[in-house]
């Protein structure tokens, strides 16, 4: 099947605009590569420290400096359901790696926070910045230079992107990502959402709400809705960083353990010392990044990846922007309906065909690049598979994904999709640029023109809602929620209230420089508005009563205010001190001061460069200035 012309066009322009930084990245990768085990570069004292506590046989292999050492970098903690299963994975991994004559070492742990726990709490303001913290923690774990490949154990929202960003800064090392899998299905997502809406209306008690939540989130594994965590898993599959079909196998099962063991053996076999050297910096290239965008759109994935994918790409020297998402969304069909874009959970999706089905459909439609490297070698079509237990329940065998959907209410072919587009659009105008996810928004709600009601926090909005002040048509403008202001928290508390107002017949929409994530639902929401106010963005010029026009079909986001009046206004001010102190937020001041714009990934690191750049600025007190060699300078010149 010939590639779709839009896929070719977008890929070509990404390759062209990324050429300087991608070239620098690959040069750095080659410079870090060594012949033989990496630990061969260490002194005897260094090396002795690196294996001092190991069992005798493992110590002998490490001492001989002939066989590879596989690092384990894990996001384990036992409070978070998605990461609790990782407690016993290192034992499985070490035994599996020994089978192929190598050694596995637990290199380090990274923090893992749950947006579900911190939602609406001060800790949520650390959430986005935890991604770059995880990347830095990954670098610390690998800085000992003992390792020849890496197994990354992570699942949830910022954790997988953070691990991958860290991995790409060690791009000469092969990487295999190892998920824990989703928890078994509990209370349906539809019932859970209904309880939340009833609680917001005061028609359900707190006890009823808690019982509903507990029946939904009830055991070990990832939450089963298709939010950022499970979108992560889909992207790792289509980028070729998982073993095929690994994403949605539940924890605590024989197949999950055998997949983990198989991933460990594969990581040992693709090192520089083996017959196949597959460094992660070659797996993640321009084509695999485009594949990730396509898979996100085709499955109605999380809007958080309009932040994470640019950040991941940047770590590999690749520059993407929201125009790339928008152009691909116009031609990528929606093949899956998983909550919040449908009633099914990810277990139902897996049973109906799963990731391999979607990858094959997109390949056959010319909407994915097959000519990419994966952890299996050449060709993405190798990942159109589903794992099963081998003979005697030992090992893993991979079979072709089903040719026919098991449930056309959940997953469909590219010839008969749920919609002809990916349901994620770019809107822009005099309020800036923003992302809208409309795959769950009914067509009649995708355009709203109504007076603005301006709030500086979701708490202020909820206070007005509970006071009965919002029974009207309006566009809620929630400002000072960008990464520089307060770390760009998710604003989930708004969802039930806005949904209730829409259900009551009111025309409502949300415009914010904050995030809504994978839980973005049926209410039209322009999110990630850039530039944010602290970067000179125009959202700070909006006043109560201004008519806001938001239209997903035409891509418009504007305040209908006379130009002379608009430009005479002063930027709004807010005391952000409460968001900068307490719950450890004062430790993250450097992130708020150095973070890039949302469209550039909201990152605190720059693009790889071969130039001698002594200073890189990404904003802070230098808003509007560009420095030679900085991200802003490069992006100002991009094709």
Walkthrough of the structure:
The structure is a single chain. The chain has helices spanning 5-32, 44-51, 56-64, 89-99, 115-118, 127-142, 159-168, 189-200, 206-216, 228-238, 254-269, 280-283, 286-298, 305-315, 322-329, 346-352, 354-364, 458-466, 483-486, 494-503, 563-568, 589-594, 631-636; strands at 69-74, 103-109, 149-153, 175-178, 373-374, 377-378, 385-389, 396-400, 424-429, 432-437, 447-455, 474-478, 508-512, 525-530, 547-551, 556-559. With 639 residues, it is α/β, with parallel strands linked by helices. It folds into 4 domains: 5-184 and 219-400, no CATH class; 189-216, no CATH class; 424-568, IlvD/EDD C-terminal domain-like (Glucose Oxidase, domain 1); 577-636, no CATH class. The strands form 4 sheets. Strands 9-10-14-13-12-11-15-16 form an 8-stranded mixed β-sheet. β7 and β8 form a beta hairpin. α4 (89-99) crosses α11. It starts with a helix and ends with a helix. It catalyses: 6-phospho-D-gluconate = 2-dehydro-3-deoxy-6-phospho-D-gluconate + H2O.
């Amino acid at each position: 099947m010939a590639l779709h012309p839009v896929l070719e066009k977008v890929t070509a322009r990404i390759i062209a605009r990324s050429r300087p930084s991608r070239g620098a990245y690959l040069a750095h990768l080659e410079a870090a590569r060594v012949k033989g085990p990496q630990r061969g570069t260490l002194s005897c004292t260094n090396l002795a420290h690196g294996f001092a506590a190991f069992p005798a046989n493992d110590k002998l292999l490490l001492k001989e400096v002939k066989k590879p050492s596989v690092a384990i970098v894990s996001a384990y903690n036992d409070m978070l359901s998605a990461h609790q299963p990782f407690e016993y994975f290192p034992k499985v991994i070490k035994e599996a790696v020994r089978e192929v004559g190598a050694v596995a070492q637990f290199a380090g742990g990274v923090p893992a926070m749950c947006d579900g726990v911190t939602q609406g709490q001060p800790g949520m303001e650390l959430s986005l910045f935890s991604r770059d913290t995880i990347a830095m923690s990954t670098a610390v774990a690998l800085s000992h230079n003992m390792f020849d490949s890496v197994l990354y154990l992570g699942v949830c929202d910022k954790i997988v992107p953070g691990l991958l960003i860290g991995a790409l800064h060690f791009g000469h090392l092969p990487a295999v990502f190892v998920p824990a899998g989703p928890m078994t299905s509990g209370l349906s997502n539809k019932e859970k959402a209904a309880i939340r809406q009833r609680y917001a209306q005061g028609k359900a008690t707190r006890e009823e709400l808690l019982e509903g939540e507990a029946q939904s989130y009830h055991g070990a594994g990832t939450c089963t809705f298709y939010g950022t965590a499970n979108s992560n898993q889909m992207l790792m599959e289509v980028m070729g960083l998982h073993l095929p079909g690994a994403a949605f196998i539940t924890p605590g099962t024989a197949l999950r353990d055998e997949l983990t063991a198989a991933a460990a053996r594969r990581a040992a076999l693709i090192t520089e010392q083996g017959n196949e050297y597959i460094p992660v910096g070659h797996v993640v290239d321009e084509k695999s990044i485009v594949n990730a965008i396509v898979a996100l759109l085709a499955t109605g994935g999380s809007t958080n990846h309009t932040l994470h994918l640019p950040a991941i790409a940047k770590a590999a020297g690749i520059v993407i922007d929201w125009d790339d998402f928008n152009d691909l969304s116009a031609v990528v069909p929606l093949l899956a309906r998983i909550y919040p874009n449908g009633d099914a959970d990810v277990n139902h999706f897996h049973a109906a065909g799963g990731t391999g089905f979607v990858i094959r459909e997109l390949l056959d439609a010319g909407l994915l690049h097959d000519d990419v490297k994966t952890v299996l070698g050449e060709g993405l079509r190798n990942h159109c598979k589903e794992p099963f237990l081998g003979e005697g329940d030992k090992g893993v065998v991979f079979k072709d994904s089903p040719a026919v959907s098991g449930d056309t209410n959940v997953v469909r072919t590219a010839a008969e999709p749920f919609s002809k587009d990916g349901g994620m659009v770019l809107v822009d105008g005099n309020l800036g640029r923003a992302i809208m996810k409309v795959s769950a928004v009914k067509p009649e709600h995708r355009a709203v023109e109504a007076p603005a009601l301006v709030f500086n926090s979701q708490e202020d909005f909820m206070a007005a809602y509970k006071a009965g002040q919002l029974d009207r048509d309006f566009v809620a403008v929630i400002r000072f929620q960008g990464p520089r202001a307060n770390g760009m928290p998710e604003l989930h508390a708004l969802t039930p209230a806005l949904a209730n107002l829409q259900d009551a017949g009111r025309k409502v929409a949300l415009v914010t420089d904050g995030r809504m994530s994978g839980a973005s639902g049926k209410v039209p929401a322009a999110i990630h508005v850039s530039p944010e106010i602290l970067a000179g963005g125009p959202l700070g010029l909006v006043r109560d009563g201004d008519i806001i026009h938001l239209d997903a079909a035409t891509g418009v986001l504007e305040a209908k205010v006379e130009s002379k009046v608009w430009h005479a206004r002063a930027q709004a001010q807010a005391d952000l001190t409460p968001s900068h102190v307490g719950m450890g937020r004062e430790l993250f001041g450097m992130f708020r001061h150095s973070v890039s714009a949302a469209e550039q990934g909201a990152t605190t690191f720059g693009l790889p460069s071969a130039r001698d750049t002594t200073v890189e600025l990404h904003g802070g007190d230098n808003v509007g200035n560009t420095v030679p060699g900085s991200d802003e300078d490069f992006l100002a010149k991009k094709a």
